[in-house]
Amino acid sequence: MSRRDPRIRLLHMRDFVRKALALVERQTRTDLDSDEKLRLALTHLVELVGEAANRFPRELQSDYPGIPWPKVIAMRHRLIHGYDQVDYDILWQTITEDFPALLEELNRALPEG
Q: Do the Cβ atoms of 11 and 48 come closer than 8 Å?
């Protein structure tokens, strides 16, 4: 797969979602408050998911209607531009509640693994 292949962005999204989900395994919301490294890592991974989504061609997004493109991209913008006002409840909810479904959609979009 070449760097120009738009599926590379889907692969990036899937990899970052997987990493975020792995980081929250056996963690609690309280852990997020007490662990700065966890907060920074999760924030960055969510930003990266959004950046990869933002770089995915708009004209191809409709081919994957199960991926909430505007929400994923908006979350990235909110974290980047509102870096000093991150709502960690929303970040935690996004990863623990929304990312599992997003991962399913990305796995459907990338059936090769």
A: no
